Model the fold of this input.
Amino acid sequence: MNPTRRTVLGGAVALAAASAVSSPASAVSAAGASTRLSNLAHLDYLRTSVTPPPAVGHSTYGSGPLGVLWTYADRQPDGSYRRIGGGTYDPATDTYGQGAFNADDIARAAVVYLRHWTLFHEASSLQAARNLLRSLTFLQSRNGNVVLWMQPDGTLNPSADPVELPDPSDSGPSYWLARTVWALGEGYSVFRRTDRAFANFLKDRLELAIAALERQVLIRYGQYNLVDGHKLPAWLIVNGADATSEAVLGLSAYVDAGGSPSARRALTRFAEGIAQLQAGSTREWPFRALLPWGESISDWHAWGAQMPSALAAAAAALGDPGLLTAAIGDTAGFTPLLLTAGGPDNGWLPVPIDRTQIAYGVDARLQALLAIDRPGQQHLAAFVAAWYFGANRAGEPMYDATTGRTYDGVSGDGVINRNSGAESTIHGQLSMLALDAHPDVARLSGSATYDGLHVVEAESGTGGTVVTPPSAWTGESQWSNGAYLSLDDTATWTLPASTQPRLVLPVVNLINTPDPAKTTWTSDGLTLGTLTHLCGPQGISAAPGALQPLTLAKPLPANATTLSAQATGTAQVDAVLLLPTISSLRIGSATLLVSVDSRPRVVGLGQRAYTYDAGGRLIARGAPLVVPGGFTVVLG
Done:
């Protein structure tokens, strides 16, 4: 398939070789199936059916085989794909250590087919969604929780090998319970218009799940956990804004479709908790991102980071525009800097360490940008979507529209994992459906060139003592390159040159102590700032201290190539982050510019420029102006 080339012209939108359209739905109808990006062929290949043996406490709607989904699909030497399960396979019993099918993927695949039905009204998609929802509800236990794994013959496997928490998997709140809520909420919203009896069944099971969340999670509403001196909400599913955000997507759909008072209450409280995990500012890490984990102030990951999408959905369902504030900050503040730094990395912990990129993370960024109804976010969506079509570290497409396959990821050094399992396929299709529903998002082509956040490892300097801890993972964050610099005197680093000033963010271990270390940072005799390596009480954090990037008061001057730190006491320095005052991402003829400068600047790039403020509002067009905290898109 060769989708119609799409171009964005400022705040207005034009479709090349197509007439203007009034809505996403009409756009899809007018363009026809031949221009679709979405293709369910590979997801259909992953589906199968099973008739499970009776299981105490488990039932579903109707009778007959249940629709399920293989977990992985490994590419074979001849280019074909083999469906497999998770964990070690025992051919004698035809079982896996985990299982063949799992609730996480079944739930999310159901969402794909529901959204496909909503957009294209194909009966086969509605039937596939129905079959998957029947198997998902079979996995649900009487207590409202959900068994994660099912073997090839349909036997439930509540305790997997390797062990996953909670164990048994239906003994408490979980990611898979959150994703079940997501699927049931969107399922009810669709089936209430096509099959009222089945919709009522889904409603009953969703209410059972909500009751479990009320009993196990929301009972802590209004309570806070202390994490390295920060008060973080204690009423998130598995202490995660990521897991909770996926439940919020389902609750929002359910409430919008007339859901119960208990659903509205749960949605309100979960959304409130998610919004409270926004951190940083336009010049301070994590740059207004919504953090995904309520047990760490040092961890951001792309996978599952549906928080801004969830807040946008909740704002609409609840009629509460205040929830958009945090979502706008995440999408207009953090996401542009993430893009110029190299794209949606799996883990900034807090240094960008896990630079693998997968569809689950890319899709979360794309969905969030499209959920915010502002022109700036829509312009950014084009840069995110381009990852699927070759604007990534491999320089090759990660999505094949002729087969519907999305590859399982690309490594930080540009190596593609050409397997195509359920999760990658699901989120690739969710992205393509979103793009099909928004034909006004530009289709950018070309390789990607990044000029953004740069990491200097602390142990690359002269001075201090390199320490390699037994594990790079601290329990809440990760030492970059598996080591840090213990500094009680002076260290100096040689830096790559830049024609721009750069913010300097030393990544240091903050300790809760009455006598904290201090470091003073200089470059060629200019003092850039002094840091006190102090944090608040540990609380529930898994490790004493907190790795934090702290912005120095003054930027590094243009063309400076040395940086020094003088310690008072013994400081632990993990790395130094250097952020150009204007970072950039170029894809073909389109350029994204992101400013952390303290003043507006005009840059010498073309004249088709669209300038957005820190919230994604268009404030100027024409001259290539970049404003503090904002971003600019230059075309041509």
